[in-house]
Amino acid sequence: MEQDLYYRSHLSRDRLVHIVDADLTTCETLSVLFRLEGFQTAFSIDLTGFLATLERRRPDVVIASLDLGGGDGLVLLRRVKSLRTGTPVFMLEDRPAVEAAVAAMKAGATDVITKPIDSEHMVGLVHDALRQDVHLGPVRAGRRPVEVRGFAQLTPREREVLQLITNGQSNKEAGRELGISPRTIEVHRARVMEKLGARNTADLMRIVLTG
């Protein structure tokens, strides 16, 4: 238990949780909750306010309402995912709405949570998300881009190779697409596996697909 508390404290340190909800009480309640967990917090009551602060500092976790109005919840989600930083985004909904939740998950949401919020569960979800350094982005043209953050940050070329491996391409096929030799692909693949702690290709796929 003591080790877990230390680990959770380490995950929280200097991490910013940004809450976006038209309901000020929700913003303040979640802000207090995560500050007690050692996080830094910020909150906005609409998309415009969030985007203004996004230019100053990118959050490590975003908790945003799907019900911002005018589809702004999904707009916010897509804006954060477009940064390709692997930032976990949790979407809140005032009441269960299957179609909206499915749309959010397809757009790259880490999870969709229905109010009232279970504080302990919410904190646990955020800590679990921060333990993962590989995330899948929203589906585009039948593919899911790979997002990597934290100590396992990959170079742009390594990310390209990981993307092609994830989509099932061989070294030869990946090399042809990137204009480099299969041997060079193998070198990049080895570096990716080392950085992500994968023992083999199957393990690498497991890490990505459970990210």
TrEMBL record:
Keywords: DNA-binding, Transcription, Transcription regulation
Response regulatory domain segment(s): 16-130
Pfam family, one: Response_reg
InterPro entries in alphabetical order: CheY-like_superfamily, Sig_transdc_resp-reg_C-effctor, Sig_transdc_resp-reg_receiver, Tscrpt_reg_LuxR_C, WH-like_DNA-bd_sf
SUPFAM superfamilies named in the record: C-terminal effector domain of the bipartite response regulators (SSF46894), CheY-like (SSF52172)
GO molecular function, one term: DNA binding
Stretches assigned to the HTH luxR-type domain: 147-211
Record carries keyword DNA-binding: yes
Alphabetical list of Gene3D superfamilies matching this protein: 3.40.50.2300, Winged helix-like DNA-binding domain superfamily/Winged helix DNA-binding domain
GO BP, one annotated term: regulation of DNA-templated transcription
Protein name listed in UniProt: Response regulator
